[in-house]
Write a structure and sequence with these properties.
Elements: H1 4-9, E1 12-13, H2 34-43, E2 66-75, E3 78-87, H3 91-98, E4 111-119, E5 125-131, E6 134-135, E7 138-139, E8 142-150, E9 156-160, E10 167-179, E11 184-195, H4 203-229
Antiparallel strand pairs: 1-7, 2-3, 3-11, 4-5, 5-8, 6-7, 8-9, 9-10, 10-11
Length: 230
């Protein structure tokens, strides 16, 4: 049987066993290497470590990257996002990761599937993403189809096509610039997101704002870890 919340918002409740995914801090059993700890957290499935995410991502661990700015504003039906971070990873490696549109599932555990479905003559790539975000333990499947390209100024732009997506509007821009002679990378993410699905009243927008920030921090950590390996 489905609950009243599930029927109203069209989401499914995830039933998972309730054992902890990792030991409490200070027990001496946590992986010392941060990249191993990140992999362990993103791979775990039990309820104590369920990855929560809304719109475009998942909240896993607190960001180890240097977050310079983190702003999410809710106005009417849309969210305005500005997130700026400095990664301790080479610029070229970061640039390759964030323009590898077909492998975005490596960067976020909420992205179940990503693929480039078409190459357009003007340089755009049509990208299809299957997302599995969760708000608390209520999860749903979302589709997001974007036209993605690098602008003449060098920004990476993703424009969502509402006809094929669960968003009435989504426009995202990523500016990636080298720092410290290219050994570090500054990433500026700006977005306007308008979901085409219902959110719980009153508390919903607050939870969304918090989880967007958590998702961006987690993704920054993952990009940093992968870029340092490559």
């Amino acid at each position: 049987m489905t609950s009243r919340i599930e029927r109203r918002f069209g989401v499914a409740r995830r039933a998972l066993p309730g054992r902890p995914c990792h030991p409490p801090a200070g027990t001496g059993r946590e992986p010392r290497d941060r990249s191993k700890r990140l992999v362990a957290l993103t791979a775990c499935k039990p309820v104590a470590c369920v990855t929560v995410a809304v719109l475009s991502g998942a909240a896993v661990a607190a960001s180890a990257a240097e977050v310079l700015r983190s702003e999410v504003h809710h106005r009417a039906a849309h969210f305005e996002v500005v997130f700026e971070v400095v990664l301790s990873a080479p610029h070229e490696a970061v640039q390759r990761l964030v323009t590898d549109y077909g492998n975005f599932s490596e960067l976020s555990s909420t992205v179940v599937h990503s693929e480039v479905v078409a190459r357009i003559a003007d340089g755009r790539s049509r990208v299809k993403l299957i997302l599995r975000p969760c708000l608390w333990l209520l999860c749903r499947r979302l589709v997001k189809v974007t036209d993605s390209y690098v602008s003449p100024a060098g920004d990476i732009v993703h424009v969502t096509l509402p006809k094929y997506s669960d968003f009435r509007e989504a426009r995202e821009r990523l500016t990636v610039t080298p720092e410290a002679g290219g050994t570090q990378t500054r990433v500026l993410y700006r977005a306007r997101l308008v979901p085409d699905f219902g959110l719980p009243p009153i508390v919903g927008p607050w939870l969304v704002r918090r989880q967007i920030v958590n998702e961006l921090s987690a993704t920054a950590d993952q990009v940093e870890a992968l870029a340092r390996e490559r």
